[in-house]
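Q: I have two molecules that I believe assemble together. Could you output C-alpha cells for the complex as a whole instead of separate predictions?
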Amino acid sequence: MEALADRIIPPDPQTPGGKDSGSAVFVDRQLAGAYGSQEGHYVRPPFINGMKNQGAQSEGGPRKDYRDGLAALDKICKAREGGKAFADLTDDRKDAVLKDIEDGKLELEGIDGKSFFALAIKDVQTGFLADPIYGGNHDMAAWKMIGFPGARYNYLDWVSRHNEPYPLPPVSMVGRAEWSSNNSGAK
Amino acid sequence: MARILPKKDVVIVGLGWTGSVMANELTDEGLDVIAIERGPWRDAPTDFPPSQMQDELRYRIRHELFLRPDQLTFTLRNKLDQQALPMRDWGAFMPPNGVGGGGVHWNGEMWRFLPSDFVLKTHLTQRYGAGFLPADMTIQYWGITYDELEPYYDRFEYLCGTSGTAGNLRGQIMEGGNPFEGPRSRDYPTKAQTQPFSHTLFAKAARELGYKPFPQPSGNLSTAYTNPHGLRMGPCTYCGFCEWFGCSNYSKASPQTTILPVLVRKDNFTARDNSEVVKINTDRSGKHATGVTFVDSSGETWEQPADLVILSAFSMFNAQLMLHSGIGQPYDPKTGEGRIGRNFTHQTISSVNGFFDKSKFNFNPFIASGSIGMCIDEFNGDNFDHGPLGFVGGGYVGQVQTGARPIESALTPPGTPKWGAAWKTAIKDNYLSTVKPGTGVHGSFYAYRDIYLDLDPLYKDRFGRPLMRMTIDIKENEAKQNRYLTDKFAEIIKAMGATSLAKTYRTAPYDATTYQTTHLNGGVIMGADPKTSAVNRYLQSWDVSNLFVLGASAFPQNAGYNPTLTVGALAYWAADAIRNQYLKKPGPLVDA
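A: Yes, here they are, computed for all two components at once.
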C-alpha cells in the first residue's frame, strides 16, 4: 500500500509523498473502520449488476476490494516483471504497470483493475488532503503545499481583502505541533 | 401489537423546517402537539461545535449528519422498462435525518420563486402556444399565486434574518438587487453579505457583459439579528464549512437557531426522537386519520392517536408514507391517473470550473459562506425569450462557491493526469487560483408523465416495507436548457480572466452517483384539481381532510431556484389556513 501511495503521490524536495505523509496509514485506518465494511450503506440483496449511473452494487465493500486488488496487483507484477512484487519494482516500472491498469490494457485477476486503481487514487488523495487526525497529511504537509489554512473559524477580517495572500499557517482540528512546545511563535 | 399512547391534538411526522414551523404555530394556538422524528435530537452548541465542524472527511465525504442508506434508501431507474437498483450509498442527493432536518446542513440559500413559476403552464401556453411544450410534459398550476404567498415568503425571511439586497420593492426596481424578482412588501431583514474576491470578480465580469448581478439571498447572516421569536443570531464568519455541516455560531438559519429554543420550552409541545413513523392510520371510511404508528429505537411499535396529522418529512418520504398508508390513489404513468407519486422532479445542475493564472489571481477560496454568491437571473424561468431556443425553463447562474474544502476542491485543469507528480504539481499550482462554483448553473426541472415515484417491487427496508422507487431521467428539454445556461455561464467565467475552463453539461441518463442538489420535489403535489393533485392549495389531503402534507413534495414542478424559502412560506401558509379556517370548522377547506 505504501508503494502504491508513493506512486499516486510521489515525494518531491518540498513535500513528502503518499508514504511519508501517511496516506497508507490513512487508508489502513479507514479500511479497518466503518468505511471498509460499508457500514451504514444499504447492503440488502439481491446484488444485481446494473448501469454505472445506478451506482455501485458491491457486496464486499472497500476492505475486500483492497485485499483482492493488492494481491492481484502483486500477482500480475510477479508474472510480468520477472517475479518481483509491485513494491520491488523501479518507480518507472511501477508507473508503467499502473498506467496500463488505468488504461484498461492490463487486467487484474478477480477484480476490475481499472475501478480498483480509481478507488486507490481517490482514497490516497483523500488521506493526503484530510485533517491529519486521520493519519494522512502528516504535519499538514498537503495543506502547506496548496495554501489551505485548515480548521480556522473566523475570516471576517479577510473577506474584503481581495487578492492578498492569507498569511497564517494551517491549523489542524487538534491545533499545531508548536502549540504544545514552549517556543511557540505561530498563531 | 402496538401500544397505544394518550391522544394528542396534533401529531407531526418529522421535525425539520416545516415540522418546526407548524409545531410552533399550532402550539401558539394552544393545541397539544407531539412531533415524532426518525433521527436523533440535535442541538447547535453541542452537536455542531466550531472546534469539530471543520472536518471535511467526516461530514462531507462520509456523510455523518445525513440519513444512512441502511436505515432507508431508494431504488432508481431511468425508464419504465428498466430494473431499478438500490442507491447503496448517497450520490445524486443527500437526504437529511434528525431534528432540524435539512435545515441543519443546508447552505442557507433564500430564493423566492418567480410569479410566473406558480402559473407556469398558463404563462408558457399564452406566450408560446400549447404546441411549444413537449408532449409528455405534465407541468400544472400550483393552486396558489405569488401574490398570495408573498406575506408568507416575507415571514420566513424574517424568521431567518435573511441577508440580501431587494430588487423589487413594492413594484419599484431597486439598483443592486434582482430586477426579475416578484414584488416584495419590504426590504430584507439584514443587508447582503460581504462578497469575497472571486464572487466580486464574477459580478464585475457579468456587469461588463450587460447583466445585472446581485448577491444571492442568504440565510447566513451579514450581521447580528434578533428574530420575531426573540432568538438572537450572530454574523457569519465565512469559515467555509457550511454546506454539509452544522453551524453552532448561530449564523446559519436552521430550526435550531430560529424556532426550537422557543418551541421546546412550551408545556404543550413534546418531541420523540429516534422514532420512525411507519404508517398514518385511518378509520374504516379511509377518509379520516386517527393518528400514526411508529417504531422506537428499541424496535417497539407504538400508536399515537391524534385529531390532526401533519406529514412533514423530507419530500420523497412524504410520498412513501402516503403510499405505505394507502392514502390517495397511486399514480400510474401508463394512464396518467392517480395522485400519489406524480410530477416527481429534481434540479438541473451543472457547473464550469475556471483555472486562473496564479501569479495574478489569489482567491483565498476557503473564505466563503454557504449561501455567499453573486448571481444573475437573466436566464431563469421565462425571463428570456425561449421562442428561438426550442426549450422551456431556466435557472440562475452565479459564482456561488461555498468554500474550498481541500478533498473536493484541490482541482486540476483539463488534461492533467489523475495521479503522480503531474497531479501533485497541478493541485499546488491551482488551489488558490481556481473558481469552483459548485451548483453554479441552477436550472429548473419540469414534470413529465413518466418521471414519478412508486413502491419498488423487489427491494425492502429494515421493516420489510417496499423501498420507494424513483423513475427519473434528464429529458431533452432539460438537457437543452442546461446546455444553453452552461454556455452562458462559461462566457462569464471566461470574461473573469480564466485561462482554462472545465465545463460539464447535465445530460441523460440521470446519474445516481453525481451530486445534483437535494432539491427533490413532487409526489404529493398541490393543485386546484383533485384529479391531478394530492393536496389542495392549503396542502390538505383531498382524501383525508385532517391530514396536511408539507414540504417540497407539494411542488407540481421545480423552478430554477433552491426550494427552502418556498417550502417555509408554504408551511406558514398552511399553518395560517389551519389556525384561521380549519380549526374553526374541521373538514375540507376546498370542495373536491
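A: One point stands out. Chain A is about 40% helix and 0% strand.
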